[in-house]
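Lab notebook: predicted structure, single chain.

Context: the supervisor wants predicted structures on file for every construct in the current expression panel, including those that have not yet been purified. This is the next one on the list. No modifications to the sequence; it matches the entry in the shared construct table.
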Amino acid sequence: MEDRSARGLIWLGMHLVFFPLLVASLHGWHAIHVRLVSAGLEPPAWLRNAVTFLIFAVVYMGLAYAAAALANRLYPRTTIESAAWEDSPGFGRKGRRG
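Prediction complete. Output recorded below exactly as produced.
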């Protein structure tokens, strides 16, 4: 397996871990919110939304940095290639749908 393919699998694995972890984190935030509401301390909507976004950002960025560190440690000499559509090997070839 090529190093870049392994890096892609690490990135895929990061996303497979991300979604269940995000759901669990948001479930915890919902439990805290329910307790605040039952205590009469309901936070304003902007604060609820800000906390929800921060949970998303912290979970995603934390896992992304961990996946990147793992990939850099396992495959240190792999070059990072462009993900732009124009840089793909088959871009601009004639004969495909037009």
